[in-house]
Every structure is written in structure tokens, then in C-alpha cells.
Amino acid sequence: MRRTLQSNNSRRFDCQTTNEWQCRFRDRTAHRAAMPGVEEAAAYGARALKVRGKLLACEPTHRSAEPGSLVVRLADDDRTALLAEAPDVYYVTDHYLDFNSVLVRLARIGPDALRDLLGMAYKFVTRKAAAKASRPKRRKRHQ
User: What is the pTM of this model?
Assistant: First the structure.
């Protein structure tokens, strides 16, 4: 069966010739248009979603991640709660422990749960960027 997906920029992707992960990524992240500033980009040589240039989610590039996973940026408290709530869906490997992120098994997460997860990631990334932008800039002292 041949499926063709269309992205926001009107490029077409043929799921028979594109690998399964990329099709699942497109299927599951199609609602990204509802989040202002989110665009498809590359991070570490892999497909990613970014908001205003900041990483939101991407295909894991480290070999410790399971195939068919997605790395999603989150606060540590949110990651801890997700890992406790659904360890069959969410996981972390040693490589990702020091990052504000969680790995998600795409085959085990429903579209609504993924939408909510990306919403959490969006709030985390944009809140962090907004806090940084709202800090007063220091002036250099002239000597």
C-alpha cells in the first residue's frame, strides 16, 4: 500500500520509498502547525522539529536509543513523571540522562498523547527561551 503525505510547505513524501521512521514521524507530528513557530529542520544530522531555532524533538542519533524512537525535550520533573507513569512508552538511556529530554517509543504512543507531549515540550522550550530573552542585558563598564 502506498501512502503519500504532504507537509506544510507542499512537498510530497512517498511512504513506500521513505523509511518507516520518517513516515511515522510525519504522521505523528502533522499537528505541529498548531504550534506557532514550529518547523521541520535537522539536528545532529537527523530530522527534527524546532521552535524559533531551538530543538523541540528529533530522531535520536545515539546508538543507545531503540529504533523507532523520538527524543523530546522536557523538564526533568516532567520526564520523571512520564517514566514512572508509562515505562513501556517512555525511557532514557545513559547517554540522555544529562539532557532535558525523554525517549519515546513511537509505536506505543497514541496521537493524542504525542500531541500532549509535544505541547509540554513546546512550553518547556519557549518558556526557557522567553526567560532568557526577558533578562536585562548587562552593560559593559568603560574603563
Answer: 0.72
